[in-house]
Description:
Keywords: Golgi apparatus, Membrane, Signal-anchor, Transferase, Transmembrane, Transmembrane helix
InterPro entries: Mannan_Polymerase_Subunit, Nucleotide-diphossugar_trans
Largest sheet: 9 strands, mixed
Family: Belongs to the ANP1/MMN9/VAN1 family.
Number of helices: 10
Number of strands: 11
CATH superfamily: Spore Coat Polysaccharide Biosynthesis Protein SpsA, Chain A
Structural class: alpha/beta
CATH topology: Spore Coat Polysaccharide Biosynthesis Protein SpsA, Chain A
Number of domains: 1
Radius of gyration: 31 Å
Low-confidence stretches: 1-8, 34-57
Membrane topology: Single-pass type II membrane protein
Strand content: 15-25%
Distance between the termini: 124 Å
Helix content: 25-40%
Transmembrane segments: 12-33
Amino acid sequence: MARPMGSVRLKKTNPVTLAVGAALCIFIIYFLIGSSAPDFSASRKATAASHPLSPPTSPFRKPTGGGKPKPPPVARYNLNNVTITPNPLENRENILLLTPMARFYPEYWDNLLRLSYPHELITLGFILPRTKEGNAATTELQKRITKTQKYGPEKDRFKSIIILREDFEPPLTSQDEAERHKMANQKIRRAAMARSRNSLLFSTLGPSTSWVLWLDADVVETPPDIIQDLARHDKPIIVPNCFQRFWNDEKKEMDERPYDFNNWQDSPTALDLAKEMGPDDILLEGYSEMATFRALMAYMHKEDGLLHEEVPLDGVGGAALLVKADVHRDGAMFPPFAFYHLIETEGFAKMAKRLGWQPIGLPNYKVAYPLALTI
Length: 375
């Protein structure tokens, strides 16, 4: 018998197929109505700071999940409780040791390890340029840091170490001594140095810091007690005398010569020169083309003089420079512009004096630069 036209016979569906289809539908619905943004809170926990003021400075994130979230912590610091005394060792005062670095000298790091001040009270801060030399210096610095902080004796390990990279192009491609000291390069070079120092200072100065020791990367020899020796004078700004060791062909023996001419007492000649300058011009020291006749601390050294003899200064260098943290907190920084016709560390000394802080020099207390082979 023929079937009526239009009738359709349905095949019975397998129950397993129905179950798979239902599961697939549930998964699609869950996917569509679920959160469209993935939750990275678990991965963020590894990089988020456990304390809003502790490095790394990742933003503090409120915890996710059920329940009422805890508020971010509030840190309180009473700067009146931060001591800055002539006896920093007895009072367990924190030292911030800062170094702008373009080249890495192994002797510099070895000298740091010889410092007698407890390393657990010293925070190191570095800033390096984004150049080929800067990259190489960063690599070598990180190797020495790892060796000291991870594998070295406990007494050698520092409280913390911060490495920054400059966020601007360096004005000079070479760090050779002859190129760095050309008079024509001084304003742009020292302006860049001032920017580096300011970036390093403002990024690392903490509320518990008592003293800031600026130490150039090419200062490879200091007395082990330099922090205690300089702090005992209880001066807001104090600098030792910087020399360079070299082989003297005339004497056929090792010798030393003055090296840092930025520690000076002003002169009437220099003040008169400044009066004739334009607002953006700067005075430079140590160049015959600009004779200032200032009294240079480099030439005040006496072999039989008192080690801790003090002299007042109007300009300072940054080779080795101990500063009470309150001086920087007062606003004394390193001007990258002409400040009373001075720039960088010399401008810092002028700014500090304007704020009421008198720089002091120790002409008979010496630190040394790298070895030079010829006169």
